[in-house]
Amino acid sequence: MYAESPDQLAQSDYVCSACATIYRRQTEFCVRCFRSGIIVPRFIRPADEILPSQPGKTANELAAANTRSFQLKAYPELRLGPGSLLCIHGGPGQGKTTWSLKAAEAMRPALVCPLEEGFSPVLTERLQRLELRHADMHFEIPSSVTELVARCDKLNPRCLVIDSVQMSSLLPEDLLKLARSRKFVLIALSQHTKAGECAGSHQLQHLADVVVRVEAMKWHLEKSRYQAATLVGDVL
Question: Contact 210/86 with Cβ under 8 angstroms?
Answer without folding.
Answer: yes
